[in-house]
Each structure stands twice: as C-alpha cells, then as structure tokens.
Amino acid sequence: MAIVPRKIQSKAIHHIFSASDDTTMTKHILATHAPVSGHINVTPLLNLVEDIFHRAASLIPSIVQEKQAQFGAMKDSTHLSDLADMLDISYHTINKISCEICCKCLGGGDAHSTTMGILGMLSSYSWDAKVVIALAAFATNFGEFWLLAQLYATNRLAKSVAMLKHMNETLEHVDDLGPKFETVSNLLKAMLDVTNCIVQFHDLDTPQMLTATTLIPGAAYWTIRSVVSCASHILGITSLGQGYMTLTIESWELSSLAYKLVNINSHLRKQLALCHQHLDDNKQREAFETLRLLFKTSHQDNLKVLRALFCTKDDPLPLFNGSTKQRVSIEVLRGKIVLLYISDLHHVSDEELEIFEQMYLESRQDPAMLESQYELVWIPVTDKGIPWLEVKPKFEKLQSMMSWYSLYDPSLLEPATIRYIKEVWLFKTKPILVVLDPQGKVVNLNAIHMMWIWGSLAYPFSTSREEALWNEETWGIGLLADTVHLSLLDWVSKGKYICLYGGDNMDWIRKFTRTAHSVCRALQLPLEIIYVGKSNPGEKIREINNAIDEEKLSNVLPDLTIIWFFWVRLESMWHSKLQQHKTVENDKIMHEVMRILSYDSSDQGWALISKGMDMAQGKGDMFLRCLREYDQWKEPAKEKGLLPAMNEYIQGLQTPHHCNRLILPGIDSNMPEKVVCAECGRPMEKFYMYRCCNNSATYFMGNLRKLIINIKMETKVLFSLKKF
C-alpha cells in the first residue's frame, strides 16, 4: 500500500504515556494474544526488513554519513527459499497491516487504539512474528517512498507516479528532508534492536525466561506503537512537502518512544544474557563430563579425545605447524604419543622455549629412532576476560619460537576444556607436559621434569618410564651436570677432577678459583673448574660470567640459558622425586639435590669437586678454608682418598649453629596467584622458602621429621621478580 497525501490533523497529538497504567495495559495486550500451534521462522523476513531500512537510510540526505552505520547490511544467512515460505504465510497479513496503518493515520486515529487494533489482527501469531510483520508492513511503505525518491530525478515513470501520489513537491526538495528524518532514523534503530532481541528469545527454555515473558508483551506493544508513530510522521512530511513543519510535540513523541525502546532493549538484553549464560553453563558442564568420560574410556586411537580437546567441529584445521608455518588437522597426531605442553602466556620464559626447541630438533634428526616417535603440541591457556588484541602479540611471539605444533587459535579451547585442564590435570600457572599414549590415554600428568632431566631419552614419557630411569641412576657428576658443558664427558673419561661452583660474590670467586688452582698444582691434580652461576640468572650473573672468562679464572657455561637449564634440571630432579613419593630421608639423590639447592638459596658461594663416585662439597667460606688448610688434611687423604678427606675436614669446620634456606618455585598455595612488582608492574614469580635455623649440634641435613619436631622450621612463600 502506497503512502498517500493527508491533511494535517487539527487535534493535538496525544501524550504517548497517557494510556492506562502498565499493569492494566499489559492485561489488555495479553487479551489480544491467542497464538495457534506451530511457529514461523521470522528471521528471513526480519533480515529483509533490516536490508530495506539500511538501503533507505543510505538515501536520506545529511543522515547518510552519520546514521548509515546504524543499520546492518542484509545478513548472508537469509535463504530465498526460507523467505519465500515466510512470505507465502504472511503476505496478505503484511498488506492488511500496511493498509490499516495508512488508513488510521490518514483518518487521525489514536496511536494506542491503532496499535491495539494491529495486535488484534495479529492475535494468532507469536510475539516475535507480530513485531516482525508490523515492521514489514511499515518497511513496504517506507521503502517505496525512498525508491521513488531515488528514481525521481532520472526516471520519467517514477516522476509520474510521484505526481499521482502527490509527492512531487516533496521529492523536488528531497535534499532538505534530512533533518525531518533524524528522529525517524533513531527510532528505526531502536525498533530493530528490540525486535532482534524478541526474536532471539524464541526457543530459549531457561528459568530466566520467566522474567523475559513478562517483558516481551510490553516490548511488542511499544515497538508496534513506534511503527504507527513513524508512519504518521512520514505521512505528514510526504503529504504537505515543504509546507509541513514538524511539530515540536511530534518530534518529542518520536524521541520519547526511542528512549523507551532503548530502555526496554536494555532490560531484554540483560535477561537474554542471563538465558545464554544459563545455557552456556549447562553446555560447559556437559562438555566437562564428556571429557571426563572420554579420558576414562578406551579408544582405538587418540583422535576422539583430541577432537574433544580442540573443538575440531568449529575448526577442521586447529593446529599450526611451527616448521612449515601451515595450518593442519589433528590427523597428523593420529596414533602417536602426544605431549601437550600447557601454559599461559606469562609464565613461559625464552630460556625454556630455547631448551625445548633444542631437544625437539635433536629428536627429529633421525626419524627412525624410537625417541623421535612423539609429537609436541602447545596449548596456550588464555584469560577470556582480556581482549584478544591485547594478548595476540604475546601469543604470536611465543608461537614463532616453536617449531612444533601449537593450537592455531586459543579461543578453540572451550571453558569446559580449560576447567578440565585446571581441575583434573592440575594446571595452575607453571607449564606442564601432559602425555597421551597412541590411544589417547593419559600416561603422565606432568612429564616436564622428565624432559628437563633426560630429554628425549625419557620416551615414552610415562610414569613407569620415569621410575625405570631413576632406578638406573646413581648420584654423581654425570647426573648433576649432564650436557651442560661440551667437554664434561671427555674430562670425566680422562679421569680428571671436576669442580662445579656457584654464587654471585666476585671477590669470593677470585679467591676460590685461584686457591683451587694453586692447591691442584701443588698436589698435581688434573682439575677442570666450571662456574654454574645461580638459579634465575640475570644481568649480574652475565657480568660475572664474562668477568670469569676474561680473567681466565675457570671454565664458564656459554650463556645464561645453559645456566638456567642447569638449575632447572636440579629443581626438576627434586619435583620428579616428589612425584615418585621419595623423601630426603630415604633417597640419596634427593638428599644431594636438596643440599645443592640450599647452597644456591643462600647468600654465599658454594663448590663441589667430583671424581668417579666420590664427591666433596660445601658452602663457599668453608670450602675455601678447606683448600687453604690442605696441609692439615693431605695426610689423611693418602689413606682415605682426597675427596673423602676433604669432606671429613669440611664437616669438621661446621659449627653447631647454622641457618640454611631452600627456595623452590611455588606450585600450590592459598596465596594470591598473581602479585606484581611495585617498581615495574610485571608479574612476580612465586616461591616457597624452607628455612632451618639451629642452635644445637644437629646437622641441617639430618632427619627432616626430627627437625620439624625439635627445630623451628618455618615455611614461607616468597615472591621474587624474575629478571632477565
């Protein structure tokens, strides 16, 4: 139905809120609602209406630049067949509503009465269908007017039709219509927002829908009421052209309607968000239980569990190959041992990735080797609350350092998967390495310590393999310093004494190394000394390393990464032994590892000398004193051996009073997960400190149980900024 001219109504426009109170009006609205069974899919029709408004808005002068973005383009999901089905059902109703709106507005009908009449005509439709059909009826007339406006200047037929409809005067001055359509444009946007919201509520079945069902009838009423007011306003503009002056009260009416719809939309959006949250929570609970069941069930291969982890139904190519820089499917992991390297974006150091990269590439050198028959996949766990653009640079930087597979898009990890990783696999902040066998069964919840200790020799990285490897190990320089220096194994094979020392006191380092060389020359001992720095090495250790090398005081490790790796291997030995349920009391390796870690946690230097199965070690001041006083133990050394005699002498130097500390990276605590540095704002690392201060003659490394009972044992959580 085309819009035809009308005369200005003489009576004043009624106040839009002069109707009965909301409760009474709601009862009247509900009285018009008598839907028949079955539901019409109104989305295709709504998409068509939005497209009409979008294209019409682009023709409105002076509104084009400012308002065009308000209306979205026609959605690609609109299928012509679905739209045709919808129009077959609603075509006659749309025409009837269009005629009703025009006739009532021309006749000066009351907006409330007209709206209630339209609701009555649409009584058999659902609420979402009511508002979409009403909008479609209005879009027919609105679109027809702007189609004529577009063709008027160049098409003779359009000009003739405009004259017949008495629109020619209006269209002669179409460039002046912008301000008069300003309020209409705003109201159209508000109507579409509310309508889209109402449509989205359909088929939702949640407790929150109870509240929504009380809001939707009123929302439908005010949307259709706005349609009527818009039509009345446009009829006034087109019928009298330049002679029509928009009344202040009429503009205020449209603005008030827009304000009311914005408010209604806000309430509906909140309820819609609650509904979606409820549905998503249920979905995630089901997905979590599905993962639980999958990992408890036997499978022929690992693809089923990997598909569930990576949500491959959303992305058929979820993995990124760091070597080829190509996206790939999970088929590349079929039937292989898969190591899932799980981390966040903040607790992965460059040193860690460098060592991982070296180990991974070494394992690939001979594809026929058994140790190469595994794949490594990085799973980044990101904070969903942080915008992706903020974390993307960090993610891409880390990913670029990996030649193995990684998850292409961290968003592929569903909340249920992240929950499973945290609750079942016990991931917190420190990286873990979960191992899946070729059938997708978890055979090790964290093999990262195995990887640091033995590298690819730990294949197939199961807990049983870890136990077997420890059964083959004995404490000695080979286990302690394996691979940290290229010449180490050669020196050992030649029967040389190997000395490792650490600390960050340059004065003590100079005294110790010069004294050690002097004693060895006097005793004619073949000795190689290696400086291993301190854990978490920073710029100070780099400077000391360079100074030692320049002054030729001893051998040094080539860079901070290798120093970092030396200490991480020691910490991994501690954690691996803990996973094996070993204690300091019943395991010599754990006892010795703890001793060296406590040296590193002190403020002093330290040293050890090893040859074969013998080893002498001690804190810096005692070890240096032992070397300086070698005349006092060189005779016992002839009988007992050099290193046993040194050990005995160092123990004799120890006083009853001592204060030892052991600082280890934090794994679990009720303390805050994140604390930032007060100076630079970077996240600080969390550590545990064990301290034993003893005034008795009891030695620190004695029975821990007795120490806990008889000695004051303090456990503190330290936060220490890791500096590189």
From TrEMBL:
Residue ranges of domain Sieve element occlusion N-terminal in the record: 20-299
GO biological process: phloem development
Location of the Sieve element occlusion C-terminal domain: 464-694
Pfam family of the protein (one): SEO_N
Superkingdom to which the source organism belongs: Eukaryota
PANTHER family recorded: PROTEIN SIEVE ELEMENT OCCLUSION B-LIKE, SIEVE ELEMENT OCCLUSION-RELATED
Name of this protein: Protein SIEVE ELEMENT OCCLUSION B-like
